[in-house]
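Inputs:
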Amino acid sequence: MKHADIIVIGGGATGAACALGLVREKAGTVLMLDKTFGIYRPSRANFGLTGYLLKGLNDAVYAKWAFKAIQEWAEFGPQLEQDSGISLDFALNGVGEPFLCEEEKAVRVQQTQQLKEMAEVNGYKYNCEILDRYEFSQLIPKMELGEKVIGGMFSSDNGHVNPLFMLRAMRKTYINEGGIFIAGESVMEIIPGQSHTIIKTNIESYVCSKVVVAAGHGSTRLLNHLGVKLPLFPLRGQLMVTNRQPPMLPIPLFLVRQTGEGTFMIGVSIEQAGHDIGTTVEAMNSQAKKAIELFPIMAEFNWVRSWGAIRVITQDDSPVYDTIPGHDNIFVLVGHSAVSLASLHSSIIPKWIISGRKPKEIENLGLRRFHV
Ligand SMILES: Cc1cc2nc3c(=O)[nH]c(=O)nc-3n(C[C@H](O)[C@H](O)[C@H](O)COP(=O)(O)OP(=O)(O)OC[C@H]3O[C@@H](n4cnc5c(N)ncnc54)[C@H](O)[C@@H]3O)c2cc1C
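Outputs:
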């Protein structure tokens, strides 16, 4: 049987960020296992926003955590680029959302007010402005807004990244700094023991002191065996990509962003479709129509690719960070927005795993809130 100090199950955005943090903290032999061929891999299929905008409406703890993650991205992003030698197409130059009617605006004004008040109580500043049409158009001088746009919201310290480059950079740096990555092995079972845990894959058995379950939706089956019912459900998002265009959209918007290569990503739908990663004509139509309402010039772009992906969502949208009952060496990290949260998954979370002392700021982001 092979041995590691810590085994991380899942090499997606969450697992890779955490594994990287563990090797940087000199946590001993760290082994990251990923079955690789799974279809539910949102880490390779997401929109790439690094933001706290509108996060934590249901939960002040998560709102503050998401805010902190973006503050830390300012250091985490450039450091990762330097260590990996991979440019991430990363920028923290703001994220916006246009309003196409008064109703949309009214909802965002109320939510922004709520988040600002929450932040004030919790000692930080939620940065978001509500802009009129003229002010919003000044953010995007090279693209004419559609006539329906009445204004928008804008937060100047949110941002975006190429999520594929981010994942590659985290995995590369992790390996360069001594981590072991085994792709193509699927964990079948976690067998807890007194002081050690056995991890059985479809190929091999491993023994380790600590286990981190960061397998997205794959975590549900693994933890079911141990009597833990994860409160996760799938929520599909569909994305479409256009052909390359000259740079013209300097900031990402919730619906549209221009990538470093020049393509426009359009999305993202929110649908209950189980684990079906298919795409639908309805979603493509509706997304494309909205993008054109926003920027009429987009009617001239060619749509070249599309895909669906499954979000890893909890009942209250906040992530889960916990150990499982009776086994304080088996850690669970699951939830949405793992791109935005990668900075903290690579810093505070690994320190918790090594020390066993859960930081106060995430005390309430555990399983107990769901009575698991
Ligand atoms: C359409 C869409 C848009 C999104 N946009 C954004 C965004 O703009 N910003 C943002 O922050 N987040 C966004 N997200 C969310 C983000 O993509 C996810 O939070 C993130 O990908 C989750 O990463 P993960 O590593 O937790 O899970 P996953 O990406 O699911 O990774 C889990 C990994 O575990 C592996 N695995 C599973 N079971 C096993 C097993 N038994 N043995 C070994 N390996 C296993 C899988 O192969 C997989 O690689 C978006 C998601 C979607 C679907």
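Remarks. The mean pLDDT is 96. DSSP finds nine helices and 17 strands in the chain.
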